[in-house]
Design a protein that fits this description.
With 283 residues, the chain is mostly helical. It is built from 13 helices and 9 strands. The protein starts with a helix and ends with a helix.
């Protein structure tokens, strides 16, 4: 759905943007390793531990943002320690005897219904309510057709920078991309764009062969012609997309808090910044 991209935008637009953005997918590691990765460990904490120990991701994110994707996959033990870190702003490395101070903002994401996990005993209710300060539902890509042109531009620019080929997408191929319903969301879109970049030769990509190859490699049928936004003149510049995201965050915070000080605490920015941004957006 673009959760990682959204988390990066939130970090880049926050007062913590000068700090690090540290990312971890909780489903990418065995449960026993997630704790050591997040909280770090001391020398000799377990077999295979580094001789000098290792700082965890929470320490690395101090002064910045920690993004935990698929937080629903974290064990109950890790959830308890994460809650303590959020409330006390202190952590203890695995195998340590003293705590360390930390200062980080947590952005968490999941593809599952966390309320259902709470009811089934798989997710701690206290952590759920601690995290559920400014919940943001990101619709699947098929429901965000107006965002597709900007997203394609952004991803293509990132891929072009990575490979340095200076290639350009023709409008005919962009039109085909806009008609597809993207069941794999942003990850699928980025993979398709990268495949086009790598496999197609020439500075401009949009031949009949490229379009046929693109469509044949897609598992689902394209959307009806009428549902596709026009490829010309519809792409929003990235600053406009970011401004829309910022406005939504502020509106969500306004609904949940009665003062700009509470809003500032929930958003992880200063109270003067909240006031300035509210004025900017006319809220």
């Amino acid at each position: 759905v673009g959760k990682t991209m959204f988390a990066r935008l939130v970090h880049q637009q926050s007062d913590r943007r000068t700090g690090r953005l540290v990312e971890l997918n909780c489903a990418s590691l065995p449960g026993s390793l997630v704790e050591a990765e997040l909280f770090g460990y001391e020398s000799g904490a377990f077999t295979g531990a580094r001789q000098k120990g290792k700082a965890g991701l929470i320490e690395e994110a101090s002064g910045g943002t920690l993004f935990l994707d698929e937080i629903s996959e974290a064990s109950l033990d890790v959830q308890a320690k994460l809650l303590k870190a959020l409330e006390d702003r202190r952590i203890m490395r695995v195998g340590a005897t003293r705590e360390r101070s930390v200062d980080f903002r947590l952005v968490a994401a999941t593809n599952v219904d966390l309320e259902a996990r709470v009811e089934s005993g798989q997710f701690r209710p206290d952590l759920y309510y601690r995290l559920n300060v400014v919940p943001i539902i990101i619709p699947p890509l098929r429901q965000r057709q107006k965002d597709l042109p900007s997203l394609i531009d952004h991803l293509w620019a990132k891929i072009d920078k990575r490979y340095g080929g200076g290639k350009v997408l023709e409008s005919s191929l962009i039109e085909s991309l806009l008609r597809y319903h993207w069941p794999g969301n942003v990850r699928e879109l980025e993979n398709v764009l990268e495949r086009l970049y790598v496999t197609e030769t020439g500075p401009r990509i949009g031949s009949d062969r490229a379009i046929r190859g693109l469509l044949s490699g897609m598992a689902a049928p394209p959307l009806p012609e009428a549902s596709a936004p026009a490829p010309e003149g519809r792409a929003e510049p990235l600053p406009k997309v970011l401004a829309r995201v910022e406005r939504q965050l502020l509106q969500d915070a306004q609904k949940r808090h009665s003062s700009t000080y509470e809003m500032a605490a929930s958003l992880g920015i200063s109270q003067p910044s909240v006031v300035r941004k509210l004025r900017k957006h006319g809220l």
